[in-house]
Amino acid sequence: MLLSYLRDRLRLTGTKYGCGGGGCGACTVMVSRYQPGTKTILHYSANACLLPVCQLQGAAVTTVEGIGSTKTRVHPVQERIARAHGSQCGFCTPGMVMSMYTLLRNTPQPTMEDIREALGGNLCRCTGYRPIVDGFRTFCQESNCCQGNGNGTAGCCLDGESPPEKSGNGLPPQLFDQGDLLPLDPTQELIFPPELILMAQTEPQMSQRFIGENIVWISPVSLDELIQLKADHPQAPLVIGNTNIGPDIKFKGALHPIIISPTRVQELFAVTRTAQGVYIGAGCSLSVVKALLEGLVQELPEEKTEIYRALLQQLGNVGGQQIRNVASIGGNIVSAYPNSDLNPVLAAGSCKLSVVSKGGRKEILLNKDFLVGFGKTSLKPDEIVLSVFIPVSRKWEFMGALRQAPRKENALATVTSGIRVMFTEGSSVVKELSICYGGVGPCTVSASRTCAAIIGRPWNEQTLSEAYTVLLDEISLSPSHPGGKVDFRRSLTLSLLFKFNLQILHKLWEMVRTGSLLPLQNNFPVVNGQSVDDQVGRPVMHHSAISQATGEAVYCDDIPKTDGELHLVLVTSTRPHAKIRGIDVTEALQVPGVVDVITSKDIPGKKFRTFTGVDEELLAENEVSCVGQMVCAVIADTREQAKRGAAVVKIHYEDLPEPVFTVEEAMEKKSYFQPQRTIERGNVTQAFEEVDQVYEGEIRLGGQEHFYMETQSMVVVPSGEDRELRVYLSCQHPTYAQESIAETLGIPSNRVSCHVKRVGGAFGGKVTKTSAIACITSVAAWRSGRAVRCVLERGEDMLITGARHPVLGRYKVGFMNDGKIIAADLHYYANSGNTADESVLVVEKVLLHLDNAYNVPNLRGHSVACKTNLPSNTAFRGFGVPQSMLVTENMINDVAMKLGRNAEEIREINMYKEVSLTHYKFQFDPKNLLRCWDECKEKSDYDSRRQAAGEFNQKNRWKKRGLAVIPIKYGIAFSEGFLNQAASLVHIYKDGSVLVSHGGTEMGQGIHTKMQQVASRELHIPTSFIHITETSTSAVPNTCPSAASFGTDANGMAVKNACETLYRRLEPVRKQNPTGTWESWVKKAFLQKISLSATGYYRGHDLYMDWEKQEGQPYAYFTYGACCSEVEVDCLSGDYRTVRTDIVTDIGRSINPSVDIGQIEGSFIQGLGLYTMEELQFSPSGVLLTRGPSQYKIPAICDIPLQFNVYLLSDSDNPHAIYSSKGIGEPVLFLGSSVFFAIKDAVAAARAEAGMDGPFTLDSPATPERTCLACNTDFTQKIPPSRPGSFKPWALNIP
User: Fold this and answer.
1) Annotated catalytic residue: which of 552, 705, 1226, 1265?
2) Alpha carbons 1213 and 1242: distance in angstroms, whole number
3) Going by C-beta distance under 8 Å and a sequence separation of 6 or more, which residues neighbour residue 1218?
4) Would the annotation count 763 as a binding residue?
5) How far apart are CA 1 and CA 245, in angstroms?
6) Is the N or C terminus of the chain more exposed, i.e. has fewer CB atoms within 10 Å?
7) Is 936 annotated as a binding residue?
8) Could you report the per-residue pLDDT of 1258-1290, keeping only the tens digit for each?
9) pLDDT digit string (tens) for 578-596?
10) Distance (Å, rounded) from C-alpha 1233 to C-alpha 1169?
11) pLDDT one-digit tens code per residue, 451-487
12) Is 1128 marked active-site?
């Protein structure tokens, strides 16, 4: 593939590996081709991981390195994403840059819709997308108004509203200034290589044949040659975009000895218009088809374009822009996916296929006789689809295309439909009707009996009511149907038909409301009287943002390969609970290139790691306890050879009985990790007897995959002497990795040096598992004496490394009729997986935050870490707090519903109001918590919007709006006091430049940038003098993990300490020459033999928690916040849109507002994903089913709120942290639950309209499935429930 060619052969490592399946956009490049017919250059973005190099003959490929660099000239696209603070960890940035660059090459002045579409195939896990959009917005024509300056305003000049108020110094606070951005000059872009134009014009087209190790790739140039090839090799697939065959080969192990690529057969790309419709060549890309249909819609009368408009609606949902640019319409059709978006519309629209073979040409109607099964059509092996005929529509003919998917865009549909109706002229009597569905069978399904029940009758409520009964009987699904969601899918067949009915009745298209993204509104304190040279408190750009945007930033797998380097691939268990009877590596060792297979017996030192007091095997030796447990590892000369070797390792198992997968099963068998934790204040039992009402409820919260963009990566290099190893890895805790490797190899820690330049996202997932994989890789390097590289593929990473703990929360709450909660008893059951990892610490933090913002006088909590036979779960941003507080807030919500009041009223009644003690007897002042709450309600205009939502709900039957305001009180720092220390090393060189080393790792949170600002203030020099070097155990030993939102607090104080020491040493020199320059002082100090190097140390807070006494001070301070979100829910499909979000956070005095606001936004969007869309699904045998972006959906650019406002609380001080700042990396993630509770509020409105009041179950995430079923519409009520125990579900209900 092009990606490996760029990275391995050409050493162009700016193009990143993110998923390998075209689902994340990290590998986006621009492909340019000369079109001899029109003499124009076609530019399009594409995923390099899916592009075969042999298909690129005559094309020019532009990578991120090709458009600009720090060594030559930075391109405006690169500059603007960096200046707008749109690059945090930076791993996705080159892909974002190339998507935008390609758009600008085609459209130099794009609209916001153009930008949104261009970025739809790119994922980001750090930023929340807002700063990326704001940076690229500056290329739009409309960006010249007040909205385009990167900070947003409350009113817009285009609306005739007033400009924003100015701050104390007369200037509005800005995160970046548009005025000095590099201008975009299209005349200065790279030209298409003239030699390629000459080649296209003069060289004769010749067929090509590429012979690889396992595949022969043939590229014909004529239709006759193609027909002959297909006759000779009928089983050979035709590949144009490689978006289907490529992933099948990579992920499913499909083997195709011969592949035919007809990309140069002109007949496959021809377009012919007739009065009856249009013939589109089967090789035309979906983007070309989309552009063609858009032109026809503009040109033809509206009544003739019904089918075209329906197809356009679906085309925008097929993949991302990069996929649509290469995937062909013919390939999309003949792939015959069950949930195809296009086939139901094409089938309902009576479209035809022109088919050619040695036997001649014929036309086939695209219907149920053509689509015959899963991935199967009626095409004969030697037949080729030449073109697709799409007819024009007729007068009185209407077409609808409706779908529901896990994500609004770039996601395969759950259910999709194409519905066409033809009325008898001048009446409502149905003359023709075609209803086709995808996602409810092995292929596209035609509801022919339902159509027959409607044809000849008037289109009215009675007809449709009877048709629903027929449809329900006609399309039935087994409760065990692949993909699950059976009740939801069946209800969608009814509700999508009803939505089409609404379209017909209103004679309009009820399009999904997307709106236009408004720029970020924010405010942050502008410090009066602060020196302009003092960078603390200013929105300084991320120190690596430019190099990340140019692709020059080096990540672990970008490190050049050393001579003789080997590649390691892990072999994992395929059984959830079994004894290992033997490991046969004979066949693996015979694979060419394979050097060795590492098993537990090869480990020279400790074969396990001890974390939280529990031993965890590095490689399973006698028994496996989950699917995905590491058993052995294969090392080979290349990764492909190692993969082939791993595939033939034979592990012989003896299954053990009754594996445990869910928390209910663990509870039944008392399968827990110890200790269990309990905490109580007051007398809960007695209080329950004295309250007005008691209510019991529960909520389930699913797990969440970290989905850091850079998968687990490491390179271990033996030095060749003194048993030394240099380890380069993507890790949050290099010291733990160092200790682990040393103990595994049985050598002192001083022989192992771990180096972390930057991490492409981590979120807690690169601590324990990274260290374990690093130990195995080190054993391989130790045994072979050669460097070994291990980079997990996305599916491997998701299978092996665990996720956020799923939790079952149960509660009993006692309250008075006025809303005051008197007593609460909460129980938390966390699904920890097969090993303890950090689970006990997680469930402890669950209990420490169960009060959130509420002063409940009698409060009891109990939490346990359940041991199950699923992959071990681990730390994740928030570390149990998002689970803990969701249960608490759901309890508050239920109390409100029992009393018939808004949840916000109950929250206000029960909040901490004055200096108080927590349930673990820690005193704090909630003043800023209350300020955040009040300001959030005020800035969001909550009261008037609550009233407006009520009015909206009264007027709309099938769409409902909901609002929720959620507070947070989040403890910062480690409750284990020793983890709060930090150290640093600062050197001043004779030229005045400064090198800073510290113990924190840069993973997108901007810690290096903040350390630059700290050193700049303390040394009184510009940040340009200061360089932050890699995090290394050789420079700063015994570091603590970069976690708990405490990295800046601890390392900042250590850097400050070192710089203060150095500045004091320079004091005599400065006094001797007070008007001298920094450089002159440094040179003079050296001559006076003054040391210009200093270590810094910060002891940290002495924090603790005594679980026996149930008291302590586990946190240094609290970060507070509040968030108001409003959603609009489609009750018929469960889809929702976040209309607006307002966040107010108290983060003290921000060291860097741009970094902190970026953390707030990114954390919120990650929380939105946790609570509304991200689902980890396991088969009944414990196999993870969601192993990549095609199955596991994180938020994309389409999911950010239409209006997103972030405010930092002013006049806030924090004496417990550096420069009065506060940690912010984790707290705001929980505020994403405001969207969950807003959805629940909207669902409650729908239920109330149906006469259902009181508490109801809505588990997290509030997916469209759960939301739709909770709305309990007439259509969901028609679905007969499946009897529990009568079938085997497709997926487990985890936790």
Assistant:
1) 1226
2) 38
3) 1014, 1048, 1049, 1052, 1053, 1056, 1151
4) yes
5) 13
6) N
7) no
8) 999 999 999 999 999 999 999 988 877 788 899
9) 999 999 999 999 999 999 9
10) 9
11) 999 999 999 889 999 999 999 999 989 898 999 999 9
12) no
